[in-house]
Amino acid sequence: MKILLAADGSEFTKRAARQLARHIRWFAEMPEVHVLHVHPPVPYPGAAARAGKSALEKYLREDSEEALAPAKKELTKAGVAFEATWCTGDVVREIAAFVKKHDIDLIVMGSHGEGALSNLVLGSVTTKVLATVKTPLLIVR
């Protein structure tokens, strides 16, 4: 079994990691756990070019590591082995690509608990992943 924990650094990521850690021993064999943060692309390519490639890469790495930290802390505290990684791109597309590439069996995500009206107008990453990927999705609130 391969599990992907999608991490955005929020309290909801922390809750999802905690739930995963609490229930991971329910599996007959210890699952392979991946933690992924997808950093959205920098919206102003001109500004990114002015800052320089190394400065941009440093910013993306540091920001992504900060987003991964709550999940990593919870899983480490519970003694769960995992592989953490990050990438840059469209969040839903990158999660779908990761799921396909790594043959993920279950996606775990925190939900920000947005209301129906907000979800209708803006959409949410969780809703879009649910609509895009065929892999089962465990949503933690």
Quick recap:
The chain has a single domain (7-115, 129-140), classed as 3-Layer(aba) Sandwich (Rossmann fold), CATH 3.40.50. Helices cover 51% and strands 20% of the residues.
Provide an overview of this structure.
The protein is an alpha/beta fold and 141 residues long. It has a single domain, classed as 3-Layer(aba) Sandwich (Rossmann fold). Helices cover 51% and strands 20% of the residues. The protein is built from 6 helices and 5 strands. The protein has a 5-stranded parallel beta sheet, sandwiched between helices. The chain is globular and about 50 Å long. It starts with a strand and ends with a strand.
Q: How are the secondary structure elements laid out?
A:
Layout: E1 2-6, H1 11-23, E2 32-39, H2 45-51, H3 53-77, E3 83-88, H4 91-102, E4 106-110, H5 116-122, H6 125-132, E5 137-140
Helix pairs in contact: 1-3, 4-6
How many beta-strand segments?
A: 5
Strand share of the residues? 15-25%
Specify the CATH class: Alpha Beta
In helices, the fraction of residues equals 40-55%
- Find the CATH superfamily: HUPs
Q: What's the main sheet like?
A: 5 strands, parallel
Helix/strand-derived class?
A: alpha/beta
Number of domains: 1
The geometry reads as: globular
Radius of gyration: 16 Å
End-to-end separation in angstroms reads 23 Å
Extract low-pLDDT stretches. Answer: none
Strand ordering within the main sheet: 3-2-1-4-5
